[in-house]
Amino acid sequence: MLKLNYDSFVRWGRMWEVELIARDVLKRPTSVKSWLSLGPKMMLKGKINPTLKKGDTLAMKRMVRTSESITSAKMKRQAAAPAAAADATGPAASTADGPADSGGES
Amino acid sequence: MSKTLAYYPGCSLHGTSGEFDASFRASARALGLTLQEIPGWDCCGNTAAHSINRLLSTALPVNELAKVEQDMKLDAVAVPCAACYSRFKTGAHEVGEDAGTAADVRAVVGRPYNGGVTVQNLVDVYHDAVGLDELAARVTRPFGGLKIACYYGCLLTRPPKVTLAEDPEYPTHMDDVVKAIGCEPIDWNYKTDCCGASLALTEQGIVDDLVARILNDAKACGADAVAVACPLCQVNLDGRQSEILRKNSSWQTIPVIFLSQLVGRAVGVSDKELGLKKHLVDVIAVMS
Q: Which of A72, A80, A82, B116 is at 20 to 30 A from B65, Cα to Cα?
């Protein structure tokens, strides 16, 4: 459901409730029962607006792209950091600790 | 009094809670406030962005704040949806607290936000932007002591380090507002308990239990109606009552009214404009 919600506002700039419900029913056909308990009553009261006023979809898509690229770059850096640290500490450790360890072992 | 606020309606007020949008605009107009809707506003990201793309969830509200600050040249924005309000306050807080986050958000938004905008929820608008004395002075149709349980929900006051709410667990500002329009706020126990929020989409049974607990306490404490300032809380507390009644035939329904509808009616806005007929549990009987 969170992903459907996310995809909806990324697509339109704003979350479109009608689309969200339709996609949820397509994805989880059993959910139709829970929608039917309230949906028709809300529709009769005019609470469900079938139309959508779009937001600034260009700005939304640009922000999504940039945020994903920054986050992805950070994750790559974080993933690389332990390996780099291990590379850096490995030889250093053997150099620095080597005599002590050797001493200990001897 | 003439004051201009930027206005961010959010997706729910353009969807299932159109009466919240209409009543807020109408009450603001009657109170001498000018609301300028942010042009081309985008979704605040709500829970979904927060869970899927954390940086975007901070950048989206900050992008709107930057528009208010730099394009609209205003120093305050009204955000009546409690969930959007929470995202706006969190976004502003995060860029103000952490230079690294601020730099990332600036890259996403494409410009800096300098922190020059006050974010006001529905209660803040009436309590602070209008003021209690001014509000009381504008009342033309006072409620004759209608007993109201003021329901704040999770997000209007929490987390306190972000919202800076004076008393996050037992807030009273909404109580002050309803008192100013002639209602009698009651003391009760579930002011800031969760209604189940978006679990209503996937776990209706849990939401029904939470809603029943909240409303039972309001009724036990003598409330004639519950006032809310969040579209999701209103949909849950109002809409789930038919299902609760189906499970428990002795259930007594209780009206759940947007604070903006109460204020609007008190300052002379017509019932039609307030959208009073859009509720699933009738509110007109207690409002007249």
A: A72
